[in-house]
Amino acid sequence: MKKGLSKGVTGLLAASLVLSGVSYTSKAVWAASIFTDVKPGWSEKHITKLAMQGILKGGTGKQAGMFSPANKVTRQEAVIIAIRFMGVENEVKVGDPLVFPSDLVIKDDYKPYIKLAVQKNILNLQEEIALVQKDGGKEWGSSPATREWMAKLLVRAIGKDQAAKDVADKATSFSDDGQIDAGLKGYVSVATTLGLVNGVTATKFDPTASVTREMASTLFSRAQSQVDVAYSGQVSGALTAVEGSKLTLLHSDGVVKSYTLSSSSFVYGFGSEQTTNISALKLYGEVILIGNTDGTVGYVEQTSETPKVKNIEGTLLLVSEAQNKLTVSIDGEPKSVSYNAQALTIKDINGKSLTIADLPVNVPVTLGVDVATESKLLSLTVNKAVTNKSGTGTVEAVNVSGLTLQVKDAAGESESYPIDANVVVKHNSTNLTLDQLVAGDAISYEVKMGSVTSITVTKKVQPPIVGTVNLLDKGTKTIQYRVNGKLEVQELADNVTVKLEGLSNVTLNDLFPGDTVSMTLNDSGKVAIITITSRSVNFLNGAVVFSADLDNDILIVTDSTNKKVPLILTETTRFDLNGTVLTKKDAVKYIIKGKKINVGYTNSNAAYISVVSQYSGTVLENNLSAKTLKLQLDNKNEVVLPYPNYFSAEIYGTSSTSYLDIRVGDKVTALMDYNTQDTVIAVQVEKTVQFELEKVDLSLNKVRAKRSDGVFEEWSLNTTLLSLVDENDNPISLNALNQLNTKLLNVTFKGRTPVKIKAYPVTYGKVTSVNAAANSVELLTNAGATVTRTFAAAPSVVRNSSVVGSLSSIKADDRVEVRVDESGKAIIEIVAGISKTYNNHNSSVLYVNRSSLSESNTYDLHPQVYVHQGTRTVLLSEMKKDDALTLYILRGKVVEIVKN
User: Fold this and answer.
1) Alpha-carbon distance 592 to 121, whole Å?
2) Which pLDDT does position 23 carry in this prediction?
């Protein structure tokens, strides 16, 4: 039964893929996506694999391109599958005389297969004649194959007939055992024990049920673990490396070979029937690959996760490139290993790809060698970072015990490095210890072999001052405070920020003598931020006014339990109506007995009073039967709001909406009926939409941007209702926006009104290294700067608008754009280059030669398009007709042109 494994992709999949009907002509085989009626699910993997192996085929004529997975499989069709599954179709003799008993009615073109099946002892004519008689004379060949009959065919096809006979007299474990043919119980037992056939439930086998085409595909696919057949176009081996779309295998004969995935490959992990990303496969485990007609791989399946490669730890002593050998000290003994430079994968501990020339000596390494001889090198990992660079930035964090440094560089990107144990730290020529570094210090630093070896502090920051407020003097712009009983004074910055937990828009008016505060100084040594730490604000939402004597600063409200809460108004108590500030005098007419208000208070002092006519928060429930909205408010409290049969739901980008369009998780502002304060009359849904920045008009204070569907919007910033911030939510001016490296704007709408424009930088460049462990990627930008982008959470990596995996999907020299989506999640888009030849150009358009009339020959140029040959910048005017080019295009514009 063993046919031997193929050692390479030995040929195209040219076998006829027949399931219904027989064909003797070779046809090119493609992935199972040709079957338009096969959808993702439990059978897709098995149909795909058997189709690419030449075992199955779809329909012909009107059924061309279809598989009809739910159709029943006839006995004569099942025999053809079994013959191909066994790898013996070449033994079918079409011209031989064929004589069958008249009891067995078989279609003529199936008879050669039936004859071979009898010769191979997977069919017994006497048994099949008896089956016809039992069926009342129905045609044998065209009758559906049953589950118990298929179990017999399958068990015999894998050479387990004797095993079935050995247990023929034993009952199966199924509750319907009595319905299984006595002569087939042994086959059912063996098939289920080997995991080839399952019951329809845990206790029921359903022996006489018909087998469908997708069931048959699954049965024979699972049974391949029991045979060793060299299917055309299929190879197997240990997976030693995955680099982008390239896989490297170590075959059983010691040959190491690389294969390229097609863009539509099917990839399956070990024991899984769901497709996965190639990066999810376990290195050094066994895989099978099945090729397409163009030489690429169309199907990948991991058949074992048990490593076929052994890892050896040692110290690299010598690199002999001329001899393709490395010498490593292992337990004090030198050992030489050979390598194939084209097949060898070399990385440092952070996953950065290296070449033989990059390898330092006398460093710890891990060698991946073949299990059989331990002398063939397949992978090498340098167990430390191989990075040498210098940089400047601001300290974000220092872990003294763990010896790590996190720095934000001049481009605003965060990087983390290990610190060398002998690091030198200096400030103004004075040596410092690591614990004297604080967040905010401006530094320059040196990295050698991946570790920080020297740090020079170019500007020290002062730590926050903690004290107790004594006096706030707005006239002299100073604050007096006590630290350990000692009275001190500090100047205030012009735009000092005051923070108090639970209260927004806090000002200096909210500070009281006795408050404990933490004060942060700016570069000028003045207080820029004051955080009140000794108190916070409590909330009562929907409190009902019991009595109000605002002239005497007394207010009593009742909470949700009808408990009275007395409050004292102070000179700093704020009043508002739907966010619009009110004076105390104006608030009197709204704060009357029976009205609902929201109250924030500290102890018994009212910090703010908001007249309830709207609620803002996140939808927890939209109860369509009770017609209520349950919201979690921005202060984390919850309210349940009734609404009428109809109200307006205002959502950006839509015209006609109602309460049916309100979804759990939506951030909304619910506007209430002012008279009753109990019923929702309108809802404004908060929605963030991404735009591409088109133009900044400083003279008119406007921003123009384009939506992904090509629609342009323009907004004026001559209003306090629309804020403009950077990616960290810091306010910025239009002039600053114009100067930033900003291409994308995430615009937040409240209903259909824009309330916030958040500008995000976009980085495009060539990948120089990927550090999957640190969640970072290093790019060389078009401007020639090296930028490291580090991500707090794993970014989504996309190619051609489809998610292709994690950072490990990116390889050196890939062109990528790093940006965020509408939710602020990091996106890395791999930009594929397209090959063209130069024809002509003007200031905004590149003209190329067509290879066919259907191709476009014009491409819009980005205003800052980078044109180069190697590291040399090239002018488009230097181009000659028919020069070979590689174009990289983003959002419809060429951003980079490489002259080949």
Assistant:
1) 96
2) 32
